[in-house]
């Protein structure tokens, strides 16, 4: 969240920590979020589109519609349990370097957000032996069985 009603959605693949940032230019109500989130999820290769874990925000009130359109089950975290989305919470912390608290996020185009995600995805991570999320993600795509990685 930025200054209300500006917001972006973050999608983080748990194994590689590969990140997509989704602009939400129309607002943060469920009917405004659903088409942008659905479009972004459909851009994920099917073998990696297994499940989505989300917090309990009202923006996911149409989660059943997203599941129907993407074939991706959505699990909602327990209230006040951010550790159930630890990788995403950590990524959101990294994003604060680019999208400061209180900023009007509507001023960032999808191209701007894609450039930020590109930087994050090509930033070496200690947890990957200093490989980048993009490298690990590519390995997942080429492995033939994304579930075992």
UniProtKB/TrEMBL annotation:
It holds the Pfam family rve. It comes from the Bacteria. SUPFAM superfamilies: Ribonuclease H-like. Gene3D superfamilies: Ribonuclease H-like superfamily/Ribonuclease H. Residues 1-141 form the Integrase catalytic domain. PANTHER family: TRANSPOSASE, TRANSPOSASE INSI FOR INSERTION SEQUENCE ELEMENT IS30A-RELATED. NCBIfam families: transpos_IS30 (NF033563). This is IS30 family transposase. It comes from Streptantibioticus ferralitis.
């Amino acid at each position: 969240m930025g200054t209300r009603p500006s917001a972006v959605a973050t999608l983080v693949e748990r194994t590689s920590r590969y990140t997509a940032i989704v602009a939400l230019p129309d607002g943060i109500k469920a009917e405004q979020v659903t088409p942008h989130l659905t479009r972004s999820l459909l851009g994920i290769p099917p073998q990696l589109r297994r499940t989505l874990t989300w917090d309990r925000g009202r923006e996911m009130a149409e989660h059943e519609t997203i599941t129907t359109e993407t074939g991706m089950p959505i699990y909602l975290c327990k209230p006040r349990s951010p550790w159930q989305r630890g990788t995403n919470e950590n990524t959101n912390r990294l994003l604060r370097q680019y999208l400061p608290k209180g900023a009007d996020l509507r001023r960032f185009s999808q191209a701007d957000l894609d450039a930020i995600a590109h930087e994050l995805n090509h930033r070496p991570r200690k947890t990957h032996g200093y490989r980048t999320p993009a490298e690990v993600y590519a390995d997942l795509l080429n492995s033939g069985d994304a579930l075992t990685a």
